[in-house]
Amino acid sequence: MKIPLSWLENYVQLPPTSELLPRLTEIGHMVDGFVRLPDGQCIVSLEIRTNRPDCLSILGIAREVSAAFRTPVREVRLAAQDSSICCRGTRLCVFLAYQRRRAR
Questions:
Q1: What is residue 10's DSSP assignment?
Q2: According to the model, what pLDDT value does residue 75 have?
């Protein structure tokens, strides 16, 4: 799983990468790689184990980093979605919202 550190910073205060990467491995998330892109963005590639589905999102990894470094997780406000589309909890709802935004 590739994780942009700039996205992770939205949820939790990050330590320097020299501390973050070894600690992620210590808590069970094997670091497959680390890349610094030309635009300055850093991306960490992690191997997430099958018994840890809670870590298959940025928020899940943020919670892990938070616990490992004893820092709080920040609440991130999400933008409100178009309430005129309602499919009563089906997968179709996400598809229709995407199609509607794309058509604008």
A1: T
A2: 84
Averaged pLDDT for residues 19-29: 92
Fold annotation for 2-69: Phenylalanyl-tRNA Synthetase; Chain B, domain 1 (3.30.56)
Helix (H) or strand (E) holding 63: helix 58-69
| Both tokens assigned to 72 | 């709080």
Domain boundaries, the chain: 2-69
Q: Is residue 47 within a helix (H) or strand (E), and if so which, with residue range?
A: strand 42-47
What is the C-alpha to C-alpha distance for residues 78 and 45, in angstroms, rounded to an integer? 25
User: Can you say how many angstroms the Cα of residue 20 is from the centroid of all Cα atoms in its chain?
Assistant: 15
Average pLDDT for 1-26: 92
Contact status, residue 62 vs residue 22, Cβ threshold 8 Å: no
CB-based contacts of 64, cutoff 8 Å, min separation 6: 24, 27, 29, 55
Q: What is the mean pLDDT of residues 63-74?
A: 94
